[in-house]
Structures are given as C-alpha cells and as structure tokens.
Specification:
Elements lengths: L7 H13 L2 H8 L3 H15 L4 E4 L2 E4 L1 H25 L5 E7 L1 H6 L1 H11 L3 E7 L2 H9 L5 E6 L8 E6 L1 E5 L11 E5 L5 H12 L4 E6 L3 H9 L5 E4 L8 E3 L11 E7 L5 H17 L1
Parallel strand pairs: 3-4, 3-5, 8-9
Antiparallel strand pairs: 1-2, 5-12, 6-12, 7-10, 7-11
Helix pairs in contact: 1-2, 1-3, 1-4, 2-3
C-alpha cells in the first residue's frame, strides 16, 4: 500500500468548511479566497479518493467519510499548531487571569481553553468561577485580565457579546410546576441575572413565587433541584441529566435569552488579548 501524507492546509480548509457550513465563510476565516478553499478541499478529496463534503442547495454537509476524518483532522491540525507555537513562538508566554460564570465554565469553556493551551503551552491560565457581580467588582479592582459575564441583551454595558442562548425553566421532572400555586425557585443570591429574569417573568404574568433555596454554586443549585426543592433557570444547552426542561404547559412564562459578554482589561497583555481573540473566534464557530 502506498503511503499518503496529509496536507495540513488542506485539512484546515476541510475543518473550517465543516465548522462554518460555507466555503465563503471558511475563506474569510482563513484569509483565503473561496476558490482557493474549494481547490484545497478538492485536492484533499482527490488525494484520499473520497468525497468528504456533500454540497447542495441547502448548504454543505459532511459525508460518512467526512465524519470519519473529522476527529483525526482536528488532532493533526492541533498538533501542528502546537509544534509551531513551541518552536516559533517562544515569546508567547505569561499568566492570563480569566474570570467566568460557573455554568458557562462548566459546559463551554473547557474545550476552548484546552485548544488554546495546545497551541500555546507556555501560557499559564488562571481561571476563577464566580457570580457575575463579583467578577465585575474584582475585574475593576484589577484581579482579572479579562472576564466573561452575564448581562441583559438590551443593557448598554462594556464589552462585546460572544454568546447568546435561550433560557429555560429546569426542574426534577415535567410536573414540578403543575400543582403549585407559588413557584418555588432555586437561585443564586441577589443580584443575579437569572434570578431577576425568573422573578420579573413570573411577576409579569401575576404568578406568585418564593425563593425556596439559595446557593452560590451551580452544583448546589442542581442538587437542590434534583431533590425536588424547586425550579431553577439555566441556558438550554446547560441542562444536565436527569433534570428536565419544563415546557410552557406548566404555566411558566417564556424567558429572554441569556447573553455572555467578554470584557478585556485596559492594560491587558498581548498574550491575554490572544486568549480573548481565541475565545471569540471559537464561540463564533460553535454558535
């Protein structure tokens, strides 16, 4: 069998097309023309004698062979970038202090930071999870280089929006709110964006509520919900098993989307700015 060497640029083009769902957006992200991106993919498919992407009027989809290649392609590209960083970017080092809400850190952040660490292994990341109010106070006191914070979509606050996602009511099971006149809420201490969203939405429809359980930790809140002490609010993608999303049939109102903003410190280092850009670009690909 003849050995075939895979080209990193072709793999990167393939991954970016698959992630963005568009040859045009892939070209914009990689700084290449659409025709160049198309040519790189064609060469990769010819080299492997496999069709990796199905192009049709509805967009671009991975074929079965494309799915098979995705995982290995990511590893090869990341290993390449890590090797380049170690050899050619020895100055990319230092400590970056990042503050982030616990729920966002639990679901979305680990893979993002792992990719950054692979590309820049000499950078030390210090990540602190806390409530948004505390994060903002400590950020303005100089404790962090950058923070991710929850905010109201209409709020004229500092920073740039990097994530938006629907909020949902979460309970032990679907029937948790069916037979209660006063909705028992499991929330973080005030002031908390999710707490305010929940109480404002219930007040708007005239449904009584009470704070049944307060916890500063995500694990504590989820444990209380699992025990049946009340209902909480979470971003849709962060609902853990075996908890259930409570539908509108339970008489609970719709909630506004959650929004996460990224704020960089005025004296942030180049390394910190690189992490900020990495977070923005990665979330853009997954949103």
């Amino acid at each position: 069998m003849t050995l075939r060497n895979l080209d990193i640029d072709q793999l990167r083009a393939f991954l970016t097309i698959a992630e963005t769902g568009s040859f045009t957006r892939a070209g914009e992200r990689l700084g290449r023309t659409q025709s160049t991106i198309s040519l790189q993919l064609k060469r990769l498919e010819n080299h492997l004698n496999r069709v990796l992407l199905d192009r049709n009027a509805r967009g671009v989809r991975l074929t079965l062979d494309g799915h098979k290649l995705m995982g290995t392609a990511r590893k090869l590209v990341h290993l390449n970038d890590k090797a380049v960083a170690e050899l050619l970017e020895p100055d990319i080092r230092g400590v970056v202090r990042l503050g982030v809400p616990e729920d966002f850190a639990t679901v979305h952040l680990p893979e993002i930071l792992a990719l950054f660490n692979e590309a820049h292994p000499l950078v030390e990341l210090e990540v602190t999870c806390d409530l948004t109010l505390n994060l903002l106070e400590r950020f303005h006191a100089g404790a962090f280089d950058l923070v991710l914070v929850k905010r109201e979509p209409a709020a004229a606050l500092e920073g740039m929006r990097v994530w938006r996602e629907p909020l949902v009511w979460v309970a032990r099971d679907q029937s948790a709110a069916d037979s209660v006149d006063t909705v028992p809420l499991v929330m973080s201490p005030a002031p908390c964006v999710y707490r305010k969203r929940a109480t404002d939405a219930l007040d708007a429809i005239g449904r009584p509520w009470r704070i049944a359980y307060t916890s500063t930790s995500l694990a504590g809140s989820q444990a209380a919900v699992r025990a049946g002490l009340g209902i909480t609010v979470l971003p849709r993608e962060m609902v853990p098993e075996p908890l259930a999303t409570v539908t509108g049939e339970a008489g609970l109102p719709m909630l506004p989307d959650t929004e996460i903003a990224l704020i960089e410190g005025s004296a942030i280092s180049e390394t910190g700015h690189m992490l900020a850009q990495h977070i923005v670009e990665t979330l853009e690909r997954t949103s």
